[in-house]
Amino acid sequence: MIENLRGKTAILTGAAQGLGYAIAKAYAREGMCIALIDVQEDKLKQLAEELKAEGADVLPIAADLADAASTQRAAQQALEHYGEPRVLVHNAALLKERSMIDVTFEQWQKEVNIIMQAAFLLSKAVWQPMIDAGGGSIVFLSSASAIMGFVREVAYTPAKHGQEGLMKVLAMEGTPFNIAVNTVTPGAPMNTPMSASTYSEEMKQRWIDPALLAPAFVRLAKVEAADSTGQRIDAWQLSQSLKPA
Ligand SMILES: NC(=O)c1ccc[n+]([C@@H]2O[C@H](COP(=O)([O-])OP(=O)(O)OC[C@H]3O[C@@H](n4cnc5c(N)ncnc54)[C@H](O)[C@@H]3O)[C@@H](O)[C@H]2O)c1
Q1: 133: pLDDT strictly greater than 90
Q2: Which residue ranges form the domains of the chain, and what is each CATH number?
Q3: How far is the CA of 88 from the centre of ligand 1 (A)?
Q4: How far is the CA of 176 from the centre of ligand 1 (A)?
């Protein structure tokens, strides 16, 4: 486990809102340099201004992670600006509930690309720089949809399953290079724009501020392969366990 994240770099996707926003705020508090990637340019700029005003070193990168070339350009921009990252958090995702009857190939591919293709392309981009740096940590956002099936999730569920598979392979291949690769499930209902459109009213009664899950992502920015790799981690449980007694 590395002790201090000050001056270390994070590449964070889906930073403009929801859980990604909470992770960005937490990494800024740790003194990390953050490449913030999102498709929502205005919200991203707003977040970057907010973090800069708090003294953080951040680089907003507007990119469409459904598009391979845009994803690769974003990764390149982050690497050219900051050098090798200590942590890559691929948090961006899109969930549009559609059945097999309704979904088009283009709609299916967009969700799969944001979740799965971008997980591969971003990991590929940071892989050699992390090897050269002697290690790093890669985190993908998982979900109950990575473990079981849900109706009207013809794209999201298989993409989240695929990301789990990629994590398992990269964890094995990354161990000799001290690259930790893990996935994270929130572990608690979160109050985010995605949840606002997908949760039942009953779940909305119980949802929590995603900032309460941020300690888990700070811990995962510090881990080395010997500490944790190839695991699916519950962010709520990990964050609770990190609270001072
Ligand atoms: N909300 C939940 O209950 C829940 C449960 C399990 C897992 N998750 C996962 O947690 C992560 C964060 O979820 P959230 O609830 O904060 O979601 P959200 O929809 O509120 O935020 C997702 C972010 O990803 C960005 N994004 C979407 N498409 C993009 C694209 N093409 N290119 C670049 N950025 C793009 C959005 O602009 C947004 O800022 C996701 O991976 C999600 O699958 C969420």
Answers
A1: yes
A2: 9-241 (3.40.50.720)
A3: 15
A4: 31
